[in-house]
Write a structure and sequence with these properties.
It contains eight helices and 17 strands. It is of the alpha/beta class and about 250 residues long. The two termini are about 30 Å apart.
């Protein structure tokens, strides 16, 4: 997911970048833009943005001018100190409205909303593309291993030996039942496509092997904690939008 931030206060822009990457480790920040003029110029040559975080009152005008000029179709999460622009925000492809000072929880909630909307609209694309995707899934063999590169060696690591995949500081790792950790080249989306349904995407950071799940515990705000059969220091949460899918997955695989 490629994110662009429009914010005229540079320290705030950097803080927002850090918060987004902490909440969504798989995201990339395409640009930090600080004015209406700079943003209009940027979007002339960069049409591959997935999501925009934008302030409203910038030093040279309101950010709505940017979206009018670029005929914007990209979802926007507005992050502003003013609570007087709700109607304009949602007319400008806005999907959420966060008041400053923002919190990590507010950013996470907005990103969850984006994920839900993105999956909904993807699911409802035209039938031909769905059928083509289904056909490709049927004829594309699932992988049984990932490739680990160590110096001059290429080592196949079998999926059955992997308890989970996780993202940390922009890198994807495989964590094995023997408590070893290896860097892998694929991202979590690619690994999910290769190893589902034996593995479940608990959240943006973790892809868990069914054989590694001992049980699950209810958590605050309808989330669940995944308890593993192997020692692992971090807490793995399943978001409330995925808990029913997770329970169904536990019962089937």
């Amino acid at each position: 997911m490629k994110v662009v931030i429009i914010e005229d206060e540079k320290p705030t822009a950097k803080d927002l970048k850090r918060t987004i990457l902490a909440a969504e480790p798989g995201a990339t920040i395409g640009a930090l833009l600080h004015s209406v003029e700079e943003a209009i110029e940027y979007f002339k040559d960069n049409a591959d943005t997935d999501l925009i975080f934008s302030d409203i009152q910038l030093g040279d005008g309101l950010s709505f001018e940017i979206f009018k000029r670029m005929d914007n179709q990209v979802p926007v999460i507005f992050c502003t100190a003013y609570n007087t622009y709700f109607s304009e925000a949602f007319e400008a492809t806005g999907i959420d409205y966060i008041l400053k000072p923002f919190s990590k929880a507010a950013i996470e909630k907005a990103l969850e909303k984006y994920d839900t909307l993105e999956k909904w609209f993807t699911r409802n694309k035209d039938t031909y593309k769905e059928q083509l995707s289904l056909l490709e899934t049927k004829i594309t063999p699932k992988k049984n291993a990932v490739i680990i590169r160590q110096r001059d060696k290429i080592i196949p690591l079998e999926a059955a030996a992997i308890a989970l995949f996780f993202v940390d500081n922009g890198y994807t790792f495989a964590y094995t039942f023997s408590q070893e950790k290896f860097i892998v080249n694929e991202n979590l989306e690619e690994l999910e496509n290769s190893f589902a349904p034996s593995f479940f995407r608990a959240n943006r950071q973790y892809l868990v092997n069914r054989k590694a799940v001992k049980d699950a515990t209810h958590f605050f705000n309808r989330k669940m904690i995944v308890n593993l059969s192997v020692p692992y220091k971090e807490q793995i949460l399943v978001g409330k939008l995925k808990t029913s899918l997770f329970v169904e997955w536990l019962s089937q695989y």
